[in-house]
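pasting input
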Amino acid sequence: MIAVSIDIGSTWTKGARFSVRPDGLGLERRTVVATTTDNLADGFQAVLEQLVDGPDPLEQIRNGQIRLSYSSSAKGGLAVAALGIVPEITLESARIAAYSAGAKVTKVFSYRLTKSDIRALEASQPDILLFAGGTDGGHVDCVLANADALARSSVGCSIVYAGNRALQDDVALRLADKDLIVVDNVLPEMNLPNPDPAREAMRGIFLEKIVKGKGLDTIIARTGVEPMPTPYAVYEFAKHISKTVPGWSDFILLDMGGATTDVYSAHRETPEPGTILRGLPELEVKRTVEGDLGLRVSALSASEAVRDLVADALGRDADRIAAFDDYIQSVARQPDYLPDDAQGQAFDAILAGACVAQACGRHAGRTTDVYTCDGKVRVQTGRDLTKVKRIIGSGGWLSQSAAFNPAPWLGRMGVDARGRAVLLPTDIEYFRDEQYLFPLLANVARIFPDEAASAGIDLLVAQQ
Amino acid sequence: MTEVNAIAALEKSPAQSIGARTASNGDQALTTVVLGVIGADCHAVGNKILENVFVQAGFKVVNLGVMVSQDEFIDAAIETGAKAILVSSIYGHGEIDCAGFRDRCIERGLDDILLYAGGNLVIGKQDFADVEAKFKAMGYDRVFPSSVDLALPTQLLRQDLGGAR
């Protein structure tokens, strides 16, 4: 049996052909072509023809000789605006649900939508608005006010209502003229996150609406196979690795590109005695996306966000910092630029390390010691990744950089600006997805989950 | 209900997960109350007893557990549409932890929420009438000593909610 996997990215359409054997997957061939943004089907077809031998690749797919799976993050992927009430509660639940669906969160709104919020939402034109707020039987006023504000607006994107269940009918009535899907609450009870129904709705919208007009509908018609948003597939893949590959129940996966840095962590929280957990419960697999941290398109915002880390790495030397700033200005204007000189490569490595540190720092939880009448108590919010030893680096730069070691960068995130310890590991084993196969294997995992999970780990290169 | 009876009720109640609890499953018509131990106070036993007593009395209880900040109480009350916040404290620092809570509720839009405080709220042996006056001046609707029969707060809560349930 042959499995072919294709990932249509913003810049490159990548593909791989695997043989499926009783003992696992074997990588047979890999290819890449420039994404044909006018019609994604053209680049897809070119990759397919390079991976499938014989006269009619599509016929081989349709008759089951070739098992095809593919994903797309073209045109920047799935853009979701998240709306909740309290930022740390239903807005956070909505953000986490959107990230787990493979989306990038382009706008967030809390409490009552103001007129300027509505204007910002109208201007930003997300693919989906994820509308949360209130636990089941809980908050009413803001939810109805927000539904009214949306009804009056010209917001034309799909709206997924995943708020207070008691208001589903009222919201549906108010938003009858909008493209609305009503699903179960992302937070039906405090302490009970429920991202899956909203996640599934967002995936459905991706398939039904987002893929249209970009050529993906042509690919579906030709192949009879539906695509996944790439990060959705990778999220599911990470979850499957965590469940099935021995020794890999807990790990961190980094995927850094020119525009964003994605962090996935698989980790089951088991707090030590004497630790008090605060905040929302954590999911076993969590994805966060940092839209301001990337090596090219987001280089300017990244260099601002990681200013201190970069300055430290450059020895606080004013001349070197000025040279670094010039370099960032230049690469932000040329997203395809790859340095061939030592200084450019060193600056890329510094920016990459700082982005990894910052993205992991935002992803990880925090702890602070509180002295009580009963002695010292550790108060923890978010996930404690200090004992997660294994880290995988994936995506263009991380895949290719044999010399990169994230450990010293993570070590510099020790304490945040509020004096809380950042719960990241320092003693790590680093692995590199050298051939950038994770998105491709994530697709194969839809058909051959166990084989793809084993292959994903077997094909990693351990840092020496 | 005496404390002994409350513990008996706790033992009889079925095992439940954390989060909101109700005596009857899935009934969203019940009045929601937010419960927790404020500040750096990590005493959990009384908190569990209170949760069970209020659940048995027919309230939907969102129990935030121990070491809860004012904003966490308020955040939970906003999201759950709670009608009352029940603050407990046993370690003697309640006066510091509870100060400004009413103002914060108003600032955050919870103008009408009922605020109850109870437990060992101050350091040393002070006359409870003085403690009650002090906490009422801070904006709490009801104040209870640690020795209170727990039937009383549930009755008063029903009364203060004025037929809301």
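fyi Chain A has a mean pLDDT of 93.
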